[in-house]
Amino acid sequence: MKPLLALLCLAALLLAPSAEAADYPYKVDLQTSRTLPYTLIGQLYFASGRQDYLGSAVAIKDRSVLTAGHNLYDAETGWSTELELRRGAYGNSVLSEQYASRVYLLSGYRARANYFGGDDIRTFALDLGGLRFPKAVAGGAFAGWSTDTSLITNSAARKMIIGYGAEGANTGDYPLTVSTQRPFSRVQGAFLESNEVYFEGGMSGGPLFVADGEGNLVVTGVVVSASKKPSISGGVRVLNKKAANLIQKFLQ
Amino acid sequence: MDRKSAIRLLLAAALLVLAVALYFLTRPDVSSSRTPSDAIAPDAPSAGRGEGSPSARQPAPGSLEDLRSRLQSGEAGLVELNALRRRLLAAPPADALAEIQRFLATGQDSALRSDFTVGEGGALEGAPSLRVFLLDLLGQIARESGSDAAATVARGVLEKKTSPDEWAIALRNVAWHDRAARPYLAAKMREMLAHEPWTRSPSDGLLEAFDVIVYTADPAFIPQLAQLRGGSVIDLQRAAAVAMDRLSETAPLEVMRYLNAHPAEYADRPLVRADFYARADLGVPAQRAALETYLSRADVGLEEKTKLLGGLASPASFVSDNLLTPNLPPGDDLPRLQHYASVLAEWQQQGRFPELRSAMARLEGRLKAQVQ
Predict the structure, then answer these.
(1) Contact A250/B14, CB-based, under 8 Å?
(2) Which chain A residue is nearest to residue B118, measuring alpha carbons?
């Protein structure tokens, strides 16, 4: 009897679901959205070609934000215009609104097109972008940041991704957050992916926060690749030396 | 079963689960990416020239020939290359230049497992071959010491199409030494882009060499850039797109005048063409005039002109470490926006560009709110 019970207990423990297969974003409530770091994140509306789009951005300096490169440039239609940051957007309310006065895309002559092949727009989509504004974005507040990639690849570290997802029931008017301890793996260069964390369209440009050694939440990357069902994988562009150069020399 | 036994059983099971979890968490990373600065010698035999010399002379220990040999065999790698870099940069320039030149003259080479990666100031952070590595150092040392050695060697490299990556560094080294060499560099760049074996599968060095086009500030490259952008090689499409954009930023007046004189160029990509005019400095009369010519053109559609207006309010730039051209420093946005608002007001008062009246009015209002 004892061996059978042992087997049953073991089987029960082994078969019991320890967690869902992936972590999904959920809507933040209004009260939470008015606390840090949510007040540093905003909707980014922009015109690209003949259409308007929605992305996300995070205040990284007094008058600047970081966002995803593909929010700023498209290979077919060129640079985005009418870039409006609606910080702390929550339904019809917003903490502040401003149009960008300068656009920077961290990107050179080369691409990793050979990785994705052919016509994949991700040749520009994996890049990091920055926007400057004439006035302070968040009343002088902005997020700290780090180029320590180990904070992201460390599966024990709790990561928080925030952005204005616009899939399914989500309209892009409310901040969503994903809190996860699932690891991200390096795919190529500064691009990391996780096939266990789901990013909605619209979250591109949203920050990935990790607690640094002192427990402070710091931006270590931005979402650059939303998941496409049925695939779960979501991608981030981590902050490295070149990103640090962008932030320090071009953003203010 | 008594309670004590059950607890012990559960603990045992929990320990087993923990063991399995630890196994999966600590297994080696299977990422396929390679470290860009990894310079372990390749599996393939040396691609260097001058092989099969009848002489069986062993290279002197510590010499560049010796390093090449050890790189080939896998005995040397990144550590040794970094040590070599430090030694050459610390040595008397004349000695270092002579040593590098002697080795380059042998034609020998060794492939390195690094990408052609440009770092700050145009110096390489990674080189795909020992010769490229040394040509880069040659250029740096020559520039620092005021020597023409690197430019002389470079012009020799540019006589034969042996390596696009060597050509890229050679073009840079000539430019570093001779500011009057723009016409020569432009001609060599055209030659490089016309060489089909290289453009069929462009190397990283060839792609980085597009910066030479920007450096020359020669708008005559525009048709070639447009052609490459519409071609079949994805990497060349991107390089051409970035180069054209940066050319319009570096030489806005020349580019605007060229495009105004050649209305068919980029007419198939009107929204991209609008970007090239969005770099105009409205405070410079000639640039403003060229922009106004464009806005007056009947062949330019309303959508394109409207985009241009929006682009002037938020000028954009690619930021990267380039072989030759620096990124333009960020200016002060407020005076620029204030001036743009006043220009919009002026255009409206003068009744210019009537089809853009509502767009101008909306934009003027927005800019005024921005700068208050």
Answers:
(1) no
(2) A108
